[in-house]
Task: inverse folding
């Protein structure tokens, strides 16, 4: 829960409002409907949708999602699982009353565990989640990124502090100006590692 929650918060706080919901959605779908955790993620998903619609001047869509998100978050305490829920509820109330507020001021920042997480503050597991989300949002083929995430997780479990895949995932998430170049390098190294794995399988199948 924490990794998906924090990854989505960082994606949102860095301005990828539409993409943020993907970081939360996979985990949300596994939760029992009506639980506090499900309400939290459902509310956040709809908050990101409301902001996305407002920034695209779809006022009706923004109002509908802001109201629905507020309903999901209403039963939760002001701080839940480390997330400051109160400021989000107040923002949603303002947005539903006046969606054009999105053109006059930035949307609410999501405060989590006494900070405001951004992409450059994420750990390895959270960065892997964010990388796949951003790849899809920005038009990259997410399959090599998902594979790099798998390799990074294996390297981490094996205690490899110098994992190339971990470094490339960090760079892909954090370096806006060079993301295309990083993606090409990441894809090349994924292809090389997959080839080595296939070679090893071939040796043992003969």
Result:
């Amino acid at each position: 829960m924490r990794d998906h929650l924090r990854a989505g918060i960082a994606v949102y706080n860095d301005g990828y409002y539409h993409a943020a919901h993907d970081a939360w959605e996979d985990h949300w779908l596994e939760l029992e409907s009506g639980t506090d955790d499900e309400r939290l993620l459902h509310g956040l998903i709809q908050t990101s949708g409301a902001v996305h619609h407002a920034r695209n001047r779809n006022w009706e869509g923004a109002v509908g999602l802001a109201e629905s998100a507020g309903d999901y978050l209403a039963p939760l305490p002001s701080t839940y699982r480390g997330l400051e829920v109160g400021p989000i509820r107040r923002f949603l109330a303002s947005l539903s009353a006046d969606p054009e507020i999105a053109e006059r001021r930035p949307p609410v920042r999501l405060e989590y565990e006494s900070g405001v997480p951004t992409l450059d503050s994420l750990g390895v597991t959270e960065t892997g989640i964010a990388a796949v989300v951003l790849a899809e949002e920005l038009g990259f083929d997410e399959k090599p990124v998902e594979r790099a995430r798998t390799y990074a997780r294996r390297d981490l479990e094996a205690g490899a502090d110098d994992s190339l895949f971990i470094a490339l995932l960090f760079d892909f998430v954090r370096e806006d100006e060079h993301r295309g170049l990083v993606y090409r390098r990441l894809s090349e190294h994924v292809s090389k590692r997959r080839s080595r794995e296939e070679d090893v399988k071939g040796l043992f199948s003969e």
